[in-house]
Design brief:
- This protein is an all-alpha fold.
- The chain folds into 2 domains: about 5-165, no CATH class; about 170-460, no CATH class.
- The protein contains 19 helices and no strands.
- The two termini are about 15 Å apart.
């Protein structure tokens, strides 16, 4: 079941009403019923359903034991099982190449939630919870398939708090979810189509490849941001306030700045549960660099099951280390960052886009074939790109640049404002004009119809 399917959207609408009808102490059970309904409607492999249920049961029992023994040193022993399960499904193909082992949907996301729950208990951040509450946390269906990786403490606080109906949450959550759907149908899937036209055509090279890299950078961002907005919006309609997962990442002036804005739930998780426990930056510069490489290695392994994801992760780590060395040599960058931030943004976007090549490629040979084109480029040939050779019409060519332009403009606005709250506060006539414009754009430019598969979110595969 796709997050874009009518079944999922109907479940989300019914759940938001059902939960508000039964607030207070029964709420954990109403959320439980909604999550069970989701697992049933998911129509996934039975073993996948059993695995997440067994993991939730294991997490609950381990949490009870950790809470009673009050020994932090045992937490590594208890998180070993979820880690082994994650590694098995991701990398068993290397051990058993003749067997086809399918990774359970959402595995990477709910495994990290299970680990953070146990770690939070060991740090006395939270008390151990009942089996129903733990199951609700692990299987919370709006964020089940692709995050965000929400934290245990705020989730349990909202799950256990006394609830009253909040019109603002219903309205703003609905607006955010609808905007996420618009992003997916009208922007992300169009960009996916354009990226395919370039990279699936072996006759295209030169500046066409650069254009493909540019489009993929925007595609993966808009695609994942759209999923996050749908998940966060639906959760808010149910009374849960998940943290934002993106904050204008391509406006970052450095890779460190980028990771403060990109997939925030993952980057903050890696910081709090791996980087800081390893000592962070408090045990000398060399260990700081080693810890940086470790968390990005884990990030690469977490994202995928091939060597390319490891290279992508380590690439980010190496650049982060080099940035830190440069920062220490120059005495910091704050003094010149405010004057040269446009240059920093452009340079950082180029670095991130090049690293996305490894992320997207299925092999090192494929990645190097793409990257070898870059040194041969000539500025004088940039105007020779012909949209007809790509397979686009003139309208598609214009719409492609409009999508990129709109994404940049709205990211700049989102950097300074909470756009959902700003939109919700506008005069009703203006709001409905805006909604009508989005509906018209979706009808004209949206991707749907026969042959369209809306379930193909990039991050759902992780």
């Amino acid at each position: 079941m796709s997050i874009l399917s009518l079944t999922f959207l109907s479940l989300s609408a019914i759940s938001s009403i059902f939960i508000w009808l039964f607030p207070n102490h029964t709420r954990r059970y109403t959320v439980l019923i909604c999550n069970i309904a989701f697992l049933y409607l998911l129509r996934a492999n039975l073993m996948d359903i059993l695995y997440v249920c067994i993991l939730a049961l294991y997490t609950w029992i381990s949490g009870k034991v950790l809470y009673r023994i009050k020994q932090k040193k045992f937490v590594l022993l208890f998180v070993l099982i979820p880690v082994v399960g994650l590694c098995y499904f991701k990398y068993a193909g290397y051990l058993f190449p003749n067997q086809r082992i399918l990774m359970p949907l959402g595995l990477s996301f709910y495994t990290f939630k299970a680990i953070s729950y146990l770690a939070d208990i060991s740090k006395n951040t939270i008390d151990s919870k009942g089996i129903v509450s733990v199951f609700d946390y692990i299987v919370f269906f709006p964020s089940f398939m692709a995050g965000p990786i929400h934290r245990s403490k705020p989730f349990f606080e909202e799950l256990e708090a006394k609830f009253t109906f909040q019109y603002k949450d219903q309205k703003n959550g609905f607006i955010q979810a609808c905007l996420g759907l618009f992003q997916k149908f009208v922007f992300a899937d169009q960009l996916n189509y354009y990226v395919g036209l370039i990279f699936n055509n072996p006759e295209l090279s030169g500046w066409y490849i650069v254009l493909g890299i540019l489009l993929y950078s925007f595609q993966i961002y808009v695609d994942f941001d759209s999923y996050s907005n749908v998940a966060i919006g639906i959760a808010r309609m149910m009374g849960f306030h998940l943290e934002r997962n993106f904050h204008s990442p391509y406006l970052g002036v450095s890779l460190r700045d980028f990771w403060r804005r990109w997939h925030i739930s993952l980057s903050s998780w890696l910081r709090d549960y791996i980087y800081i426990p390893l000592g962070g930056s408090k045990k000398g510069r060399i260990l700081k660099y080693i810890n940086t490489l470790i968390i990005f290695l884990v990030s690469g392994i977490w994202h995928g099951s091939t060597l390319m994801f490891v290279i992508w992760g380590l690439g980010h780590g190496i650049v982060m280390v080099l940035e830190d060395i440069l920062r220490s040599i120059t005495g910091g960058v704050r003094s010149w960052m405010k004057w040269f931030s446009p240059i920093g943004i452009i340079i950082n976007f180029i670095i991130v886009s090049i690293l996305w090549v490894f992320f997207r490629s299925s092999s090192m040979e494929e990645a190097l074939t793409i990257l070898r084109v870059i040194p041969t480029l000539k500025i004088s040939e940039i105007g020779s790109i012909d949209y007809n050779l790509i397979g686009m019409s003139l309208n598609e060519w214009y719409w492609m640049w409009i999508i990129i332009g709109i994404t940049i403009v709205f990211d700049i606005l989102r950097y300074f404002f909470n756009m959902i709250d700003v939109l919700a506060k506008q005069f009703i006539v203006f709001r409905w004009i805006f909604y009508a414009a989005l509906i018209i754009l979706a009808i004209i430019f949206g991707m749907y119809g026969p042959g369209y598969h809306p379930s193909d979110f990039i991050y759902v595969t992780f």
